[in-house]
């Protein structure tokens, strides 16, 4: 076990207007490795998950999270292994995920910093999968489609941000359910990955093609389900091409997280075509986590879902990895590997 506990902390108050933090907000500190009290476990973090939520948490999210004060540890998704336990619910060696401090080691009483139960990964599951397909990423895709999109065999499903963390999973779930899947992504390389690796039927390169025109050409009967991770003009293009009875699922809006985007012009198409648009917040569906993880794990083990992981190596890589998602720099789920997996009886080595 390392002698010190490295952690990322809030170095200063953000001055940005959007969700994204400035690089100067990310600071480093070291401290002692904490000791678990009765009912607690000590977790050796192996992966950090980079999500817009990391940034929103620092700034605070009205009615959801209080801002993290300067000098306190940054928080986000972690995947790690229990290396000491004084809890009856967890044993040394258990693989766990949750939303906790971005540090080498963290103690937890079984409830993470969102008030959600620490999640135990199923036997044989990779730690990275706990933050990707089996974690918030995959579960957002599953819940958004199961409860709101409800794709039927033969319907056309369009996914924006399709080469991102949630988009890659959402498109594959829609394909599993028999839908025709079209992905919107930025650049030829990402579009080729969607078709060649993930078996999307068609793609639209928003950086080099006119999205509204391409949607009209590829969806002559309209879009039955639009799974949106982007918002802004791309959402407006989908509204212009929505089918009668179409469903729009609002999962994210990365185009507006840092920059102002123009208001929607085509929202009346919801009325004209009897379509619906609904959003959801992941933590409102805690009661569905077990169901979602079980189904996603089954698809993953059966090879029906392929994971797309973008892994930065080393503790020092966390800040830059957390920032690159706003520039579309990641493909799939952005993770940071900060240590080797400390299997029971083996020493833990940081990166």
Overall description:
- The protein has 351 residues and is α/β, with parallel strands linked by helices.
- The chain has two domains: 5-132 and 307-337, Medium-chain alcohol dehydrogenases, catalytic domain (Quinone Oxidoreductase, Chain A, domain 1), CATH 3.90.180; 136-282, Rossmann fold.
- It has helices at 52-59, 127-131, 136-149, 165-176, 188-196, 211-218, 232-240, 269-272, 289-301, 318-324; strands spanning 5-10, 26-31, 41-49, 75-85, 95-101, 105-108, 119-120, 156-159, 180-185, 202-205, 223-228, 242-250, 276-279, 309-313, 333-337.
- Strands 3, 4, 5, 6, 7, 14 and 15 form a seven-stranded mixed beta sheet that branches.
- The longest helix has 14 residues, at 136-149.
- It is globular, with a radius of gyration of 20 Å.
- The relative contact order is 0.15.
């Amino acid at each position: 076990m390392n002698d010190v506990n490295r952690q990322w902390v809030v170095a200063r108050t953000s001055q940005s207007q959007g969700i994204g933090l400035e690089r100067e907000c990310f600071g480093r500190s070291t401290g002692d490795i904490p000791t678990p009290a009765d009912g607690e476990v000590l977790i050796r973090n192996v992966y950090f998950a980079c999500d817009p939520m990391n940034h929103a948490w620092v700034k605070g999210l009205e009615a959801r999270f209080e801002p993290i004060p300067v000098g306190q540890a940054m928080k986000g998704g972690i995947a790690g292994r229990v290396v000491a336990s004084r809890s009856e619910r967890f044993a040394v060696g258990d693989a766990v995920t949750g939303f906790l401090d971005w540090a080498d080691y963290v103690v937890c009483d079984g409830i993470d910093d969102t008030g959600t139960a620490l999640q135990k990964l199923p036997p044989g599951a990779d730690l990275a999968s706990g933050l990707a397909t089996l974690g918030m990423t995959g579960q957002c895709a599953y819940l958004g489609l199961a409860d709101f999109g409800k794709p039927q065999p033969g319907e056309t499903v369009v996914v924006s941000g399709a080469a991102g963390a949630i988009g890659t999973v959402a498109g594959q779930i829609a394909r599993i359910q028999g839908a025709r899947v079209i992905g919107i992504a930025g650049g030829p390389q990402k579009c080729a990955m969607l078709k060649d690796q993930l078996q999307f039927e068609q793609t639209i390169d928003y950086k080099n093609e006119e999205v509204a025109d391409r949607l009209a050409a590829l969806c002559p009967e309209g879009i039955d389900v639009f799974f949106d991770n982007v918002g802004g003009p791309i959402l407006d293009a989908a509204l212009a091409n929505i089918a009668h009875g179409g469903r729009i699922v609002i999962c994210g809006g990365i185009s507006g997280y840092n920059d102002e985007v123009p208001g929607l012009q085509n929202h009346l198409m919801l009325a004209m075509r009897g379509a619906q648009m609904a959003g959801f917040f992941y933590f409102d569906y805690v009661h569905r986590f077990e169901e979602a993880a079980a189904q996603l794990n089954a698809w993953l083990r059966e090879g029906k879902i392929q994971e797309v992981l973008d892994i930065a190596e080393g503790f020092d890589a966390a800040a830059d990895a957390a920032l690159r998602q706003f520039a579309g720099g990641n493909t799939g789920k952005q993770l940071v590997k900060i240590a080797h997996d400390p299997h029971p009886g083996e020493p833990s080595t940081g990166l």
